Amino acid sequence: MLQAGGRQSAFTKELNVHRSVIHRLWNHYQRDQNASSRRGSGHRRITTTSDDRYLLQCARHQMTLTARQLASQLFAAVGRPISRQSVSHRLHEGGLFARRPVVCVPLSPAHVRARLH
């Protein structure tokens, strides 16, 4: 769109990004004829998106499995080793966190009636 003569300010409003983002991408494209993003500086992910879905599915179906057991189950299914910590990170990204059932004293029928009143 910029090659066709569009203005950078119009893109910032349309895409809801800062002006410097459009300016930097346009300069990068003009210099390299490529606007693809560079690889980040962090460690590469060892799991794929399908591996992540498989872990979440297994964790939801068998809620008593630990992260270490899920890692061994994924290794058996895919053949790629994964650490316990990586499994824990993937479960957190999927919204699953460790939890303990709350231990409480059951209410007597008199307590139930009193609470309802």
UniProtKB/TrEMBL annotation:
Transposase Tc1-like domain span: 52-116
GO biological process, one term: DNA transposition
Signal sequence, renumbered to the chain: none
Any GO CC annotation of this UniProt entry: nucleus
Coiled coil stretches, renumbered: none
InterPro entries listed in its UniProt record: Homeodomain-like_sf, Transposase_Tc1-like
Primary subcellular site in the record, as a coarse category: nucleus
Places the protein is found: Nucleus
Entry GO MF terms: DNA binding
Name of the featured protein: Transposase Tc1-like domain-containing protein
Native organism: Araneus ventricosus
